[in-house]
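Fill in residues.
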């Protein structure tokens, strides 16, 4: 018989978030991503918000609590999805949850005004430095950027023109991520905000037909 996993609870700026040790624990500094996304929702074109790599859901839930908008969440891990559903219900937020890998669960024609993305970004050789975190939540592949690349591909395809994305990355990854964004003709890095435990990058989608600066 398998040992039951204890459910934990975390107050994320007033949201009661439940999770367990199979899921990444909520990190308080990441509320900055919710606040930034909420600011962008207020000035973005009309449309839903997409949260990629949502985990237990707290970043997207807080964003749409601060700035009301329809929310679509994508998460590959069924355990995290179970917590996300319960956390959304407890928050009174209706979420369209897509359970599966981000490159498989969106219709090609879907478009979003704002994208929140929090991919695993630890380089595989470094994963052992974080024994408390589930490997699938933090393993970003050989250079840490495999899932960042995946998020950029989704952002390129699904972000509305003049919409914005807020992408979470690791400390020291801003240069490499800016170079990756530069390979997309319609995306540009607008602003970087650095924190002790990670960084947030705002990426805008240019109006179709306009030339990148
Ligand atoms: C760094 S964690 C972030 C979770 C949550 N946003 C948080 O702050 O606690 C990354 C999440 O991405 C999920 N994930 C990994 N690969 C994915 C993929 N290809 N598509 C969708 N989600 C994925 C993991 O299961 C994990 O929950």
């Amino acid at each position: 018989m398998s040992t039951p996993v204890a459910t934990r609870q975390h107050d994320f700026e007033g949201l009661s978030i439940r999770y367990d040790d199979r899921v990444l624990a909520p990190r308080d500094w990441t509320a900055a991503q919710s606040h930034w996304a909420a600011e962008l929702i207020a000035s973005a074109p009309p449309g839903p918000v997409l949260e990629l790599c949502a985990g237990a859901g707290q970043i997207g839930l807080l964003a749409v609590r601060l700035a009301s908008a329809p929310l679509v969440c994508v998460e590959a891990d069924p355990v995290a999805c179970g917590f996300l559903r319960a956390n959304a219900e407890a928050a009174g937020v209706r979420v369209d949850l897509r359970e599966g890998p981000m490159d498989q669960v969106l219709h090609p024609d879907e478009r979003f005004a704002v994208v929140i993305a929090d991919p695993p970004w630890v380089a595989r050789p470094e994963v052992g430095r974080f024994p408390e975190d589930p490997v699938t939540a933090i393993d970003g592949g050989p250079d840490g950027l495999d899932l960042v690349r995946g998020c950029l591909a989704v952002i390129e395809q699904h972000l509305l023109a003049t919409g914005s994305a807020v992408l979470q990355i690791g400390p020291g990854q801003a240069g490499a991520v800016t170079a990756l964004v530069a390979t997309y003709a319609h995306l540009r890095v607008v602003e970087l905000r650095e924190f002790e435990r990670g960084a947030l990058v705002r990426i805008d989608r240019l109006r179709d037909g306009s030339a990148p600066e």
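The chain has six helices and nine strands.
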